[in-house]
Amino acid sequence: MKIIKGLRNFDAQKFSPPRVFSIGNFDGVHRGHQRLIKTAVRIARKQGGTALVLTFFPHPLRLLHPRPRLRLLTCLDDRAALINSLGPDACVIARFSPGFARMTPEQFVRKVLIRKLKIDTVVVGDNFHFGTNKKGNPKFLKQAGLKVVTVPPVKDNGITVSSTKIRKLAAEGKISRVTSMLGRPYSLRGRVVSGRGRGQRLGFPTANIRVCQERLPLDGVYAVRVKLKDGEFFGMLNIGTRPTFKDRGKGRSVEVHVIDWQGDLYGQIIEVVLVKRLRPEKKFVSSKALKDRLRKDREAAKRVLNRFKGGKQG
């Protein structure tokens, strides 16, 4: 898949018609997004054309409603990688600026979709809206002369799958529901950075991860699978503020202990797949009490991970 950053860098002549575009923000690239993109790919392949994706950066809500700050499920690179896995020929990342936000539905269709992208077919969700005051919709696109394919929402246990719902479930620590709505294992990815070495001193060395995701799960201890360059390992993850220690620093931390593994992960990019939340984060009266609990957590993580090995998350 070719990634094109900025509308000005898109040359429609390099993509054979019919050009079938799916359009959306696609944060999380969940099951609903997957259906949209796969539909565009299927139509394009059937007609001998090109399947393309139009998405936006930054997320429009960041500009239109800056407070409270929107916490995204995926960073831009991860979003592009997930879109790529669905098989489109190219992904166009349009810069969402104040000027872009002021475009009327008529301007967006005429200037962006028709003149610049030269779209033949648009694949969007039933509730797709665009332009100032969100006055544009699939009916408007059809009236503008475009071929429009609308895709119904995906339901999960009777609830419509959406990025907003997934963010809420993640914040509640409901890993199995997040996994079900995403349609893939729920994971965090980022670079290992230096920490304070407390885990090492306790006998539970941890890798401190600077994750690219903004919407973190509920604070607590999780059983996880850790994907490293040399394989996949069991682990336990702590997300929180490390309340046991006085010099805990500011903000939340993401630390993973890789079970039965030794080595230096500093500087590496790793992925941590969340399987089950074991317990809330808590403050212990001493380092010894914390160490005793960590031993129990490790055994609990092993039991959970052996049970869910090759199965669904909990």
Query: CATH first level of the largest domain: which class?
Result: Alpha Beta
CATH H-level name of the largest domain... which superfamily? HUPs
In what order do the strands lie side by side in the largest sheet? 1-4-3-2-5-6
Per DSSP, the total helix count is 10
- Runs in which pLDDT lies below 50 for 5 or more consecutive residues are none
Question: Share of helix among residues?
Answer: 25-40%
Sketch the topology as an H/E string, one letter per element: EEHEHHEHHEHEEEHHEHEEEEEH
Strand residues, percent: 25-35%
Backbone CA Rg: 22 Å
Major sheet characteristics:
6 strands, parallel
Structural class: alpha/beta
Question: Can you characterise this structure?
Answer:
It is a single chain. The chain has two domains: 2-153, HUPs (Rossmann fold); 179-308, Elongation Factor Tu (Ef-tu), domain 3. 31% of the residues lie in helices and 27% in strands. The protein is built from ten helices and 14 strands. The chain has helices at 31-47, 60-64, 76-84, 98-101, 105-116, 138-143, 163-171, 175-182, 198-202, 287-308, and strands at 2-5, 19-23, 50-57, 90-95, 121-125, 147-151, 155-156, 159-160, 187-193, 207-211, 220-228, 231-240, 253-258, 269-279. The strands form three sheets. It has a six-stranded parallel sheet with strand order 1-4-3-2-5-6. The chain has a six-stranded antiparallel barrel with strand order 9-10-13-12-11-14. The chain has a two-stranded antiparallel ribbon with strand order 7-8. The protein is elongated. The chain starts with a strand and ends in a 6-residue tail after the last helix. The mean pLDDT is 93.
